[in-house]
Amino acid sequence: MSIYTKTGDKGTTALFTGQRVKKNHPRVETYGTLDELNATLSLCARVVQRRENQQLLEAVQHQLFYFSAELASEGEPTATAHKTLGDQHIQQLEQAVDRCMSALPPVHGFILPGNSEAGSRLHLARTLARRAERRLVELAEQVPVRQTLLQYLNRLSDCLYALARDEDHQHWLQQITKTVAARYLAASNSQCSPAPQSTSAELAFADVHQLLKLTVASAIELAVPVVVAVADRHGNMIMTYRMPDTLLVSSELAPKKAWTAVAMKTPTHQLSAAVQPGADLFQLEASLGGKIVTFGGGYPLWRNGQLIGGLGISGGSVEQDMTIAQMAIEALHLRNE
């Protein structure tokens, strides 16, 4: 069967109900834009990560066929267009919006469209949904259009925005996982050496005692009261000491610095650049519920190529905290990075 009929060679096309109209008729413009949107949703469905997002997009593609059939019918619709959009379809979109947005960090301004392929394609689909909505409003000024159709398109663009953010977030989480795993692997490989004595892989009481003495002495020398926190190689707190008159917030920050240094096997000041917008670890702090600290004062402690713990100092400026920690680490010959 030939796909060309030559009936449209003069710039007209037939509606489902038989009438012939110009190809730039508002009806044709509107359901033609829905056709663009449907094709774009097909591209989106091929790359989204979440199975429920893919299923929703495929359902919407079918719903857009019903939508277009209704718009392409003047008067009573034919049997071809027996399915119509209803409130249940709008509710399905609203439920998807609520699902996605409840799991995402809040946004207080405009965002650039898409940080992943799926997110970028969904944002493109969102703009097509908005254009289709504008076309539908124009059509509604000339012919009767069901209010449900206007509501559906308005909600669909909101839904595509939520799906785009959800897919960007999933992509970001995958990148974080890969980056953190790579850091751990790189740190482990770089510290490879003949197996040390079992006692060298742990912080002894004498080590902790000396760290406390040295950090307090350095803090007194700088006239900066601090909190000293020491964690073992698993991130468990061994000791926390608060000097008199230290800022109350330092009691929270010092243990977090020690834990971060162990968890990331990296001095905390080296994480600052990695968590900036667009960097590999952007939003790391938010994703871990504030456990991570990305400014100076936390150091991993190494002995004979083995991570044995972490030291966190808080109370002065970032530079003062780093100086106090480094003086103690150097005095005990514990490499800090």
From TrEMBL:
Please list the residue ranges annotated as the Cobalamin adenosyltransferase-like domain: 3-165
Q: Which domain of life is it from?
A: Bacteria
Q: Which UniProt keywords apply?
A: ATP-binding, Nucleotide-binding, Transferase
Instruction: State any single GO MF term.
Output: corrinoid adenosyltransferase activity
Entry EC number(s): 2.5.1.17
Kindly indicate whether the keyword Electron transport belongs to this entry. Answer: no
What is this protein identified as? Cob(I)yrinic acid a,c-diamide adenosyltransferase
Record organism: Serratia aquatilis
